[in-house]
Amino acid sequence: MEWLEEVDIFLCLRRMEFQKNIFLLSVLWKKPNKLYMNKKVFQGLGLFVLLCMTALTASAQWSLGIKGGWDYTSITRSNAGRIDETYSPLSGYDVGIQARYGFTDWFALRADLSVMRRSHRMDRHLDYLDSLYTEHHNLYLMLPVLADFSFGGEHFRGHAMLGGYIGYWLQDHIKGKTYWMTDYCMYYNPFDEKRPFTLEDRRFNAGLVGGLGLSYLINEHWGLNLDALYYYDLVSHRRSSPHLRDPRYLNTLSITFGASYIF
Fold first, then answer.
1. Nearest Cα to Cα of residue 120 among 257, 235, 237
2. pLDDT tens digits, residue range 54-107?
3. What range defines the domain where residue 97 resides?
4. What is the pLDDT of residues 84-97, one digit of tens each?
């Protein structure tokens, strides 16, 4: 009766294979319905996002303009420098373009692209020498992005702005007076030149920016603005060496006047 046992095993295997096929068919039957439901859900979410964007852009407003003004820069340095060196701030300029996208009457995003001269001065005080100094006139390309919160009336409005910025060090022009000595004499040597960058210089810059502003809407398409922004470096423009950590950060107050066209 071995052949009966073999037939029984064969029928059992075929029955298991048939049940497996029935299960797969049921899964395939239900899957399109599930995909259809998922498609409906995604379509609904997409429609909801589109309606939200339409509601925001219905009151959105673009403006593009120019700005220019004055800045005042100081330097923050560690105690690793010479004890006979003192640092003082110098003035510079800030010119560029400004773009603003207003989502609502009180909130907008603003981005500027400007060229800033961020300058400072170093004086050396020695017992036997006087009037030794170096002025650094650093030229930076700056890109601040700010959240702009506004308040006030229809024409005059105040602004509170906060955000971050990235920058790139374009040039360092130095001027000042140093000295050189021979066996018998000492000479003062003035200089005024462009300093070449070295491996110790970090030309990429980033930090925080914030400030206050005042705007005036002349008519439907033209507006004026006066801003005071403070730039606070988070990245040192001097690289640290294995033997010396001497970070140096620039801090700049910029006051600019601008005019914008409102689309």
1. 237
2. 544 555 689 999 999 999 999 988 765 566 788 899 999 999 999 999 999 899
3. 61-262
4. 788 899 999 999 99
Asked whether residue 48 falls in the same domain as residue 90, the answer is no
d(CA 209, CA 162): 6
**Structural domains of the chain, count:** 2
- Shared domain for 51 and 129, answered yes or no, is no
- What is the C-alpha to C-alpha distance for residues 69 and 228, in angstroms, rounded to an integer? 10
Say whether both 139 and 205 belong to one domain: yes
Query: What is this structure's pTM?
Result: 0.74
CA-wise closest residue to 231 among 92, 122, 85, 101? 92
What is the torsion angle, in degrees rounded to the nearest 10, for the CA atoms of residue 77, residue 83, residue 86 and residue 87?
-10
Alpha-carbon span 75 to 171, nearest angstrom: 17
Residues 152 and 238 in one domain: yes
Q: Which residues are within 8 A (CB) of 93 and not within 5 positions of it... i.e. 6 or more apart?
A: 68, 69, 70, 71, 116, 117
Residue pair 200/248 in contact by the 8 Å Cβ criterion: no
